[in-house]
Automatic annotation (TrEMBL):
UniProt protein name: Mor transcription activator domain-containing protein
Record organism: Clostridium thailandense
InterPro entries given in the database record: c-mor_Regulatory_Protein, YraL-like
Amino acid sequence: MKYEKAQNILPHNIIKIIQNYMDGGYLYIPRKNENKKSWGENTETKRYLKARDEEIFNIYSMGVSVKVLSEQYFLTEGSIRRIIRKQKKYG
């Protein structure tokens, strides 16, 4: 997200109205709903986590314990159990 000077993009009368509510400072203007992107859409994070979770489930299925997986992946045992449950359900 990049900052823009209001006076460079908004009409003067709009700026005056905004100043009635906020005189100086930063104001975040959210995207329109139809322009919003889902989490991870711009990065490889979503794909990476999906592959990691599948890998964790496969290793668990081969008999590796939750404790060992949590140490190997630097996650809590609760997180490992959550991943395993999710993979069993939606796998």
